[in-house]
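Sequence, please.
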């Protein structure tokens, strides 16, 4: 803390004495603020400590210790008192308050007494003799009228009132005349040359001598004899470094100079000259003093012994010597070398007063003398504008440095270096030691400004030892400098090599830990060598050795050496325990590398043409001098000077050659012939050409030979960026297939593979190359067979599929109506089979429909290798698979048995083979779809043994979608009773068998093969006169001959053949259950003879389960009544009634059904009168044939909103009819009534009977018919029954077909009549959706919504009936206008109705496994409203409907 001023210090000392009383305050009654007291004590302690610090240095050690102890004791006692005072003050507030009150009262009492005494005294003594004086009326009149007082006596006015001063005009006139007088005197007086700079104004003249002094003179009159009067002197000399703007001359000195100069102005003929001489001499002395003080400060702070003041004569001269360290160094060298002593050179700088002309500034001289040019660079005189001895020394040293470096540059010419240059700041001599030489490689010599010694440096050189040796040599006698420069030149060349490879993935070392270096050729290469590891090689090194040739040229020699990691004793065994054991290397054979062969080979030109010879040089110069040839421009060097191109090329060449040599040896071990390492034809890299490849196992010899003929070349190259890989390039001739890809339309085609380059695993690389060859061969053999059919115009494959791309490693085909679907085919050597992937191309809306069948198609292609067959199957199945993709696959409830909360996908498609898929609905019901030719699909119900229940009415439902494409091929129909008694397939009409074909057909591409070698399939069995005639069915009965493809359309057999070829009970053709996705083996793999791509797939499914699969058409008649599960209805066989029978599953033999309302205008659909459905468990297993259009109509979402397809609606109704009996059995007060029709469910309650049945016209909806029981006929009017039936049809038995919603609805039916009527009234409000006089619309929540999942799992039945009834309603705001896209407010109301109390309250149910939550505003509003209307309820009627109606009318929810 800084000390306080003197006044406060005096007050502090006065108050700290004695009782520390404040001056001016009576003793005993004074007070002081505590903060002021603490401040005083701190100030006193600080003052005592300051005084102690100033006095202690002058005393002895013992006295200092005594004083410190006394100060500490005194200060401690003082702060103890302060501490006690502070503690007392904290508890003395009440005493202070009482004391202040007493003092105030005493002071007021004293004032009262004093006032009374003074008033009494005035009345008794002063006012007794008091009289008023006479008024001075004249004075008052003067003051009031004139404003002045003219009657003041003269004596008073003369002594007090001053005389008037001269006016400003008189002042200006006087000064103007004085200025004229001074100008006249100056004109008539001889002035010094240095004082010619003056200014005359206001009767004064000011002389200014820059950076020395400034004087002001005047005259006291106009007489020529009056001397000059000196008014002011200002010394302008300053110290710019440490002066800080302060004057260097004391005011007393200025006064003395003023008196001396004034004395020289009196009685003098040349007063101005004497004035200048006096002041100029003083300023020069002052300048010398400033320079001397700067020198002392410079020696003390920075320069030290480097400079010294040799002599200083006050007012005359100052001699300073510099570079003192060089002087000491020379003396030490003379003493060490014992040479005769001679006087060393001492560099001095002298600043002195000029003896020739006293008017000059301070002069400068040098020792040893400088040349006139150098002296002018430093300056001949001191510049007074900036006095700085350091600046003067630096200028002098810079000139000396330049001179020494020039002498050194002349000496360096004998060391055969190029022209030296001096540049940079500080001045540096740049000596190029190489040609060409970069800036960073120059040997730079500079002079130390303080010591005067030479310092050498090279920015590019990191070896400090050689730089120190050069520095030592330059500062001595310079012996051995030539050897040091040669060593530096070689070191720089090594550094160039290191920089040339610094961006390569390698390392370079000056030394290697070699254990066998002695007596090895490496030891004789000399000290200047470099070990460079070949990139990506850990054991091979390029050794670079450097030697100097004549004319300062450096010779580069390259060697290749292979090393082996080993231990210190030469052991090469792996030592797993010691990690750092193999830190040494053993050098192998040293192989010289021919640099010329590396850099001048084919496509490897590194250097330009060789330099011209001396004769050619002289000849060119002569032509230039004679004017015959123009002087060419100087060639600019390409690239950086430090870059060594041959080194980088040798490393790159070794890096690329070594892996190729290793992989070539591995190919030889595998029997592959190659041509060795060659330069690529484009000159881009090295390559290894393969001349022959082995045959491929499992591939036809003919296909392999054809591929080898197409193979033009096979080369291996190395790719280094972005990663190091093998590049394998196959060059083939034109492919046998024309593709749409422009890159594959040329005369040659390249196939490129890439493999990781790893020298430790070359066997894997060679194996992969051979595997790639195998993949190409297998795909080529597949393409060869396919090309024969594809290029045949009669096959029609070109209109079916297009070859999008064939790159020898992958085949891409496009198919579909718009050619928007893709199939990619490749051969995988690891799995030894073809892989198939599907995709889309162009503007495709959906995914490829065959993605789910990729496994089946892939297995069949690998097994049969018939690509034409696959192409035909993809074409024929594209449309039905697109229709299947339209099915939804959302997660739905799928209750089975007691598991009511089971979840499953709505539809799951399970491929079984290439032409057979299984479609399951919620893992409960399933149908099998078989794809057949001629745009037909066959649908049947999955078997019970496979985990799915049979679907009732499926046959009847599917028959509704049989269109003209199927019916037109069968001209007769079967009666409805024949569905119950299907005809025997043994006596099938031959005309009906082939009536499914729509006229003459070209058949599949494979069915038209000729036996002369053109195609590979057997000839058709029809006479050769008409190749378009279908094969006769009688030919199928011949032994050893497979049936015609037209038999693929024969219907599925009767139930008696359920264990036939296509039955799941047959172990040979077992189809997996829905939980398994393993594909079914193709029929061809089981010994079934296939003819063509279409007949093999389309026909196999038609023959699956057919009686003609293994025994022609011979089959016992079903008239024997021995079919398993066949209905035992007596009657003649269908064969006896019709003679010849057709397939019982053919849709043309069944009575068609009526269509759904609104579908009469759809194409392909026919309307027929409805008929009674009789339940037959086996009827759905008979395949139903549908056209592709009808199948698409069956699976496409339609109806209101287009949410569900007809098939989904049918399955939903079947689901309800299956689960409704279980619900009736599980619920109380519901009684199931036996029905003669299995598709009709009849049940009853106390007052009503219900009948649930299919809509006979569409089979896509359920209808509930409710009637009053005989004993309670009049309880429910027809209007309420109609509302209940309509609610069931529109709100319960509809999408998404929730079984729990059906369960909740059934729980309402056995309610008492009055409660059920209220529920029906609420249904009426929901159905009518009336918003008049209501704020809300109401809707039943039959299942728990997700927002109320805290009560029970979402999807659970939302209605529960025990002693009380729980139901949920959804209220939606209806009387507000909202912007478009904004949903109205909706809330879920949970009501609890008490049967006995006839009250409705809101249910309070704690959250499951969750902490209690704060009720929402809607919940609180509903609770409050229900409590409000509870007081006004009528107890005679049911309170449920009135409460809900009032909620709709008056509920208000905030927000």
């Amino acid at each position: 803390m800084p000390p306080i001023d003197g006044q406060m210090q005096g007050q502090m000392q006065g108050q700290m004495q004695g009782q520390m009383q404040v001056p001016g305050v009576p003793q005993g009654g004074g007070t002081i603020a505590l903060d002021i007291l603490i401040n005083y004590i701190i100030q006193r302690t600080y003052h005592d400590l300051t005084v102690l610090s100033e006095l202690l240095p002058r005393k002895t050690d013992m006295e200092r210790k005594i004083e410190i102890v006394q100060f500490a004791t005194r200060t401690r006692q003082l702060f103890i008192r302060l501490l006690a005072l502070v503690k007392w003050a904290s508890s003395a507030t009440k005493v202070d308050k009482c004391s202040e009150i007493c003092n105030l009262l005493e002071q007021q009492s004293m004032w009262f007494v004093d006032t009374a005494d003074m008033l009494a005294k005035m009345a008794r003594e002063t006012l007794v003799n008091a009289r008023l004086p006479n008024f001075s009326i004249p004075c008052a009149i003067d003051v009031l009228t004139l404003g002045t007082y003219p009657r003041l006596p003269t004596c008073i006015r003369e002594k007090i009132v001053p005389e008037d001063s001269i006016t400003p005009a008189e002042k200006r006139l006087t000064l103007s005349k004085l200025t004229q007088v001074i100008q006249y005197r100056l004109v008539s007086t001889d002035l010094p040359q240095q004082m010619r700079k003056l200014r005359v104004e206001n009767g004064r003249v000011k002389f200014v001598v820059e950076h020395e002094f400034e004087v002001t003179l005047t005259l006291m009159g106009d007489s020529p004899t009056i001397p000059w009067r000196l008014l002011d002197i200002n010394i302008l000399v300053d110290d710019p470094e440490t002066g800080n703007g302060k004057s260097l001359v004391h005011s007393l000195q200025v006064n003395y100079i003023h008196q001396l100069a004034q004395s020289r102005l009196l009685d003098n003929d040349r007063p101005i000259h004497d004035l200048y001489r006096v002041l100029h001499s003083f300023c020069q002395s002052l300048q010398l003093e400033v320079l001397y003080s700067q020198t002392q400060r410079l020696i003390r702070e920075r320069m030290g012994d480097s400079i010294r003041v040799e002599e200083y004569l006050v007012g005359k001269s100052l001699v300073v010597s510099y570079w003192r360290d060089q002087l000491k160094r020379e003396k030490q060298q003379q003493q060490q070398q014992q040479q005769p002593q001679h006087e060393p050179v001492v560099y001095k700088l002298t600043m002195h007063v000029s003896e020739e002309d006293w008017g000059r500034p301070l002069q400068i001289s040098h020792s040893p003398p400088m040349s006139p040019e150098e002296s002018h660079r430093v300056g001949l005189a001191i510049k007074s504008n900036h006095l700085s001895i350091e600046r003067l020394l630096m200028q002098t040293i810079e000139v000396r440095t330049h001179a020494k470096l020039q002498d050194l540059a002349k000496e360096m010419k004998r060391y055969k270096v190029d022209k030296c240059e001096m540049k940079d700041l500080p001045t540096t001599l740049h000596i190029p030691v190489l040609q060409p030489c970069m800036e960073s490689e120059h040997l730079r010599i500079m002079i130390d400004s303080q010591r005067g010694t030479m310092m050498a440096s090279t920015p590019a050189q990191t070896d400090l030892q050689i730089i120190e040796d050069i520095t030592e040599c330059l500062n001595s006698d310079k012996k051995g400098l030539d050897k040091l420069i040669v060593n530096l030149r070689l070191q720089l060349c090594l550094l160039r090599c290191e920089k040339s490879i610094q961006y390569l993935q390698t390392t370079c070392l000056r030394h290697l830990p070699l254990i066998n270096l002695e007596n090895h050729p490496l030891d004789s290469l000399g000290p200047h060598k470099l070990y460079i590891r070949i990139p990506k090689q850990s054991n091979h090194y390029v050794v670079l050795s450097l030697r100097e040739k004549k004319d300062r040229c450096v010779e580069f020699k390259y060697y290749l050496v292979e090393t082996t990691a080993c231990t210190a004793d030469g052991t090469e065994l792996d030592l797993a325990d010691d990690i750092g054991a193999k830190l040494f290397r053993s050098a192998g054979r040293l192989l010289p590398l021919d640099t010329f062969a590396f850099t001048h080979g084919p496509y490897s030109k590194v250097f330009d043409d060789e330099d011209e010879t001396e004769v050619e040089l002289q000849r060119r110069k002569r032509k230039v001098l004679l004017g015959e040839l123009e002087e060419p421009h100087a060639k600019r060097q390409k690239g950086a000077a430090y870059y060594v191109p041959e080194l980088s090329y040798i490393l790159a060449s070794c890096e690329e050659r070594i892996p190729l040599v290793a992989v070539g040896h591995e190919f030889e071990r595998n029997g592959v012939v190659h041509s060795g390492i060659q330069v690529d034809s484009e000159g881009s890299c090295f390559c290894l050409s393969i001349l022959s490849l082995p045959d491929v196992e499992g591939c036809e010899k003919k296909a392999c030979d054809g591929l080898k003929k197409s193979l033009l070349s096979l080369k291996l190259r190395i790719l280094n960026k972005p990663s190091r890989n093998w590049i394998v390039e196959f060059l083939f001739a034109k492919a046998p297939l024309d593709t749409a890809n422009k890159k594959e339309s040329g005369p040659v085609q390249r196939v490129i593979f890439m493999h990781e380059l790893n020298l430790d695993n070359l066997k894997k690389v060679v194996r992969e190359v051979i595997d790639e060859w195998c993949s190409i061969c297998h795909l080529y053999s597949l393409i060869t067979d396919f090309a024969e059919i594809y290029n045949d115009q009669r096959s029609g494959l070109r209109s079916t599929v297009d070859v999008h791309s064939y790159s020898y490693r992958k085949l891409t085909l496009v198919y579909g109506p718009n050619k928007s679907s893709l199939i990619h085919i490749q051969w995988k050597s690891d799995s030894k089979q073809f892989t198939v992937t599907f995709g889309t191309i162009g503007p495709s809306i959906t995914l490829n429909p065959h993605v789910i069948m990729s496994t089946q198609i892939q297995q069949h292609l690998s097994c049969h290798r018939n690509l034409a067959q696959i192409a035909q199957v993809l074409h024929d199945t594209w449309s039905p698979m697109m229709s299947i993709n339209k099915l939804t696959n959302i997660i739905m409830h799928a209750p089975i048995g007691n598991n009511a909360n089971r979840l499953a996908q709505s539809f799951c498609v399970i491929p079984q083979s290439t032409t057979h898929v299984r479609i399951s609905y919620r893992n409960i019901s399933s149908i099998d779809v078989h794809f057949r030719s001629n745009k037909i699909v066959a649908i049947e119900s999955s078997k019970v043994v496979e985990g799915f229940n049979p679907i009732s009415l499926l046959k009847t439902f599917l028959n509704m979608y049989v269109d003209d494409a199927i019916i037109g091929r069968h001209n007769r129909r079967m009666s409805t009773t024949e569905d119950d008694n299907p005809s025997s397939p043994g006596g099938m009409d031959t005309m009906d068998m082939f009536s499914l074909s729509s006229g003459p057909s070209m058949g599949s591409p494979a069915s038209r093969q000729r036996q002369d070698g053109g195609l590979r399939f057997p000839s058709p069995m029809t006479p050769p006169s008409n190749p378009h005639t279908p094969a006769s069915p009688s030919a199928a009965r011949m032994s050893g001959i497979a049936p015609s493809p037209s038999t693929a359309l024969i219907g599925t057999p009767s139930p008696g053949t359920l264990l036939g070829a296509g039955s799941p009970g047959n172990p040979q053709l077992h189809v997996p259950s829905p939980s398994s996705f393993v594909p079914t083996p193709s029929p061809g793999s089981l010994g079934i003879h296939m003819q063509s791509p279409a007949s093999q797939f389309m026909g196999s499914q038609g023959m699956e389960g057919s009686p003609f699969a293994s025994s022609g058409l011979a089959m016992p008649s079903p008239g024997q009544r021995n079919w398993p599960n066949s209905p035992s209805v007596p009657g003649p066989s269908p064969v006896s009634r019709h003679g010849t029978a057709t397939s019982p599953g053919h849709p043309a033999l069944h009575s068609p059904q009526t269509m759904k309302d609104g579908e009469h205008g759809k194409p392909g659909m026919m309307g027929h009168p409805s008929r009674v459905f009789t339940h037959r468990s086996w009827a759905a297993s008979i395949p139903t044939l549908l056209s592709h259009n009808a199948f698409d109509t069956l699976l496409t979402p339609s109806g209101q909103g287009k949410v569900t397809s007809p098939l989904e609606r049918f399955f939903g109704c079947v689901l309800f009819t299956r689960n409704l009996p279980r619900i009736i059995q599980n619920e109380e007060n519901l009684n199931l009534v036996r029905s003669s029709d299995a598709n009709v469910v009849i049940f009853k309650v106390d007052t009503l009977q219900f009948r649930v049945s299919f809509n006979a016209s569409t089979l896509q909806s359920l209808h509930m018919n409710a009637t009053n029981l005989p004993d309670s006929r009049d309880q429910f009017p027809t209007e309420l029954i109609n509302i209940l039936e309509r609610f069931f049809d529109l709100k319960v038995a509809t999408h998404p077909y929730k079984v729990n919603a059906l369960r909740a609805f059934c729980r309402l039916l056995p309610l008492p009549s009055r409660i059920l009527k209220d529920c029906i009234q609420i249904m009426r409000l929901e159905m009518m959706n009336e918003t008049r006089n209501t704020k809300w619309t109401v809707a039943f929540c039959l299942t728990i919504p997700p927002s109320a999942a805290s009560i029970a799992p979402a999807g659970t039945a939302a209605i529960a009936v025990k002693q009380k009834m729980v139901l949920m309603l959804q209220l939606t705001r209806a009387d507000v206008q909202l912007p478009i896209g904004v949903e109205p407010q909706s809330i879920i109301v949970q009501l609890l109705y008490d049967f006995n109390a006839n009250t409705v309250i809101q249910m309070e149910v704690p959250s499951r496994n969750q902490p209690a939550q704060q009720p929402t505003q809607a919940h609180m509003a509903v609770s409050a409203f229900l409590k409000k209307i509870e007081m006004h309820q009528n107890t005679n009627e049911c309170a449920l409907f009135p409460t809900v109606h009032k909620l709709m009318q008056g509920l208000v929810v905030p927000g």
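The longest helix spans residues 93-126.
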